[in-house]
Amino acid sequence: MGMELDWISYMTMEGLDLLTKLFVFTVGLGALAIVILFVIDVAQTQDAVRRNYPVIGRFRHIFTTLGEFFRQYFFAMDREEMPFNRAQRDWVYKSSAGSDNTVAFGSTHNLTEAGSPVFVNCPFPTLESDGAPTPRVVVGEYTPNPYEFASLINISGMSYGAISDPAVRALSKGAGMAGCWLNTGEGGLAPQHLEGGADIVLQIGTAKYGVRTLDGRLDDGKLREVGAIPQVKMIELKMSQGAKPGKGGLLPGVKVTPEIAKIRGIPAYQDSVSPNRHPEIDNVQQMLDVIGHIRAVSGKPTGFKSVVGAYGWLEQMCEEVNLRGVESAPDFITIDSGDGGTGAAPMALMDHVGLPIREALPLVADVLTRYGLRERIKLFASGKLVTPSEVAWAYCAGADSVVSARGFMFALGCIQALKCNKNTCPTGITTHNPRLQRGLDPTDKAVRVMQYVEKMRKDVGIIAHSCGVPHARALKRYHCRMVQPSGRSVPLDELHPPVQPGSAQTVAA
Questions:
Q1: How far apart are CA 311 and CA 267, in angstroms?
Q2: Interatomic CA distance for residues 351 and 242, integer angstroms
Q3: Are 301 and 331 in contact (CB under 8 A)?
Q4: Which among 4, 22, 37, 377 is placed 20 to 30 Å from 184, CA to CA?
Q5: What is the dihedral of CA 194, 198, 201, 204, to 10 degrees?
Q6: 3-state class (DSSP) for residue 355
């Protein structure tokens, strides 16, 4: 017995001695690391804080990095975050998950905040039993293959390459299940886009990815092949986008895998930089020529996407269309908002160039109406329209349909980590890292995409019924008021008074 106690005591002492040595070694190692960091910080000249406050100055960078995390999860209120607040994201998360998306105990939204829409409810709202399905919209009646659709919200352009393989597959399957269309983005048509059976809008950017020659010009043969695919319903010529009007896109070389390089027609693992505009388009006449050429070669309705800043060119376009004949008009225009999207961009462009959708959409609708082209040219609205109130506003303002990119990213599980351009997206949406992509199951996320579309349709319909109309496409400007800086709301049709159809032509005559 005594020997056992002696052995236990011996082992205990040995263990304590080992732990003591480990502790001393660890402290010594830490002290050595601090000395090394001290020497490095004092010697370097790039960072004044670290030079003046060696070692301790390094915590500034750590806290700055962590600050984004703490603000999102602990400190920011539900309606405070940018570009999308927690309340907006939670609505999308709950809707896409098929969960209850109602709220209790009153609104957390500041009802007197300038720019907020207030919908004018009717004392005798439309009974749900009297509600009507949203009418179908026909695009491209002068083409051999007009496109007819009903969906209130569709998936805006996100390139395969900018977003991952499982993300594109989930969007394709979800769009097919929901009956909405999927825009390819400027990266070309990939097999993953077609996989789910969804209607496809092919976007052609300034680099002509997927339909380009080796030197970057439009390849009619490739365009004709894509146009022959039945799933491809429309073609969108991207003139500019919200994140960076006047600047071309950049796909980092780390994202240009051999597969993506083949789809786009570019070298693998090299940065891919798009021109800041189409080299062959320098005026509205050339733009109409290119749109007409694409439409003739592909046989599909063709329009363009643009951020609106200056708008005199829109009037020139309408005048030119009326000279050439209405069949020469773009079949649709997608108006993008100047407040940016997922793509990396200079802050100066993202923050200060281009009109936001709240100003641009009614402006463009009025220009088309004045020139008698509003029925001929369909209008699609894009830009932070991710919840029912925002989508309903767009229909009041004059949209024929709404497209969203970031709303569907939230449906896929995006947590607004703001890492879209770094190949480190923690949810697997905007990365080509296989380990990070594992978290995104296309089968599960496709269902979430479908449920997001369905909840959007339902809740926008609820707003329409509350305003006394049978469906969302019956909403007009007088159904919506906009809160002013004074806190008082003003009818949207006072802020943007109705214009007489064809009035510009009458004046010209």
A1: 37
A2: 10
A3: yes
A4: 377
A5: -20
A6: coil
Task: For residue range 155-166, list pLDDT tens digits in order.
Answer: 999 988 888 899
Measured CA angle at 490 (ends 488, 491), to 5 deg: 150
Cα gap 186→343, rounded to integer Å:
12
Question: What is the C-alpha separation between 105 and 97, in angstroms, rounded?
Answer: 23
d(Cα 93, Cα 70) in Å, to the nearest integer? 20
Q: Is the pLDDT of residue 92 over 90?
A: no
Query: Quick check: 401 and 380 in contact, CB under 8 A?
Result: yes
Cα dihedral across residues 468, 471, 472, 473: positive or negative: negative
- Alpha carbons 331 and 493: distance in angstroms, whole number: 26
Query: Token digits for 6?
Result: 């002696």
The residue length of the chain stands at 509
Q: What is the DSSP letter of 234?
A: E
Would you say 155 and 181 are in contact if contact means Cβ atoms under 8 Å apart?
yes
CB count within 10 Å of CB 441 equals: 14
What is the residue-wise DSSP string for 364-377? Answer: HHHHHHHTT-TTTS
Among 323, 313, 314, residue whose Cα is nearest residue 509: 323
For 52, residues 6+ apart whose C-beta sits below 8 A from its C-beta are none
Q: Which pLDDT belongs to residue 235? A: 98
The number of beta carbons lying within 10 Å of the beta carbon of residue 214 is 8
Placement of tokens 């908002």 in the chain: 337
Which pTM was predicted? 0.86
Residue (of 255, 140, 144, 249) closest to 201 by Cα position: 140
Three-state DSSP class for residue 446: helix
Type of residue at 230: P
